[in-house]
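Quick start: what a row looks like.
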Amino acid sequence: MPDANSADATRTGLGISELLKTTVLLNGQEAPVSASFGVVAYPSHGDNPPTLLRRSELALSAAKHAPGGFAVYTADQDEEAAERLALASSLRTAIDHDELKLFFPAQGRLRHERFGRR
């Protein structure tokens, strides 16, 4: 859509989402049809294909958890993606340097087992 903005993208997304609310018959069973899609608007969300594609993928990720199955890109999604990437990098570094420790809670039946040092 030329000269689209977030409001236009939201209206379009809601329309598509409504159209997809249906079921299909598979082997005698009704199965719901669903889809998730991320929406970006040119030029407000980016002025080149790589930026628009990256931001549409961020919106798609958000859409998978959104009611209606769609989400319009917001700058917050860039920040959240950067935080997740930093966390994943830190976790990988901790694993590589044997700095990660995992603790499990004790489990047992209080009537039959004793906890603590013996």
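That is the whole record. Residues 6-73 form one domain. Residues 75-96 form the longest helix (22 residues).
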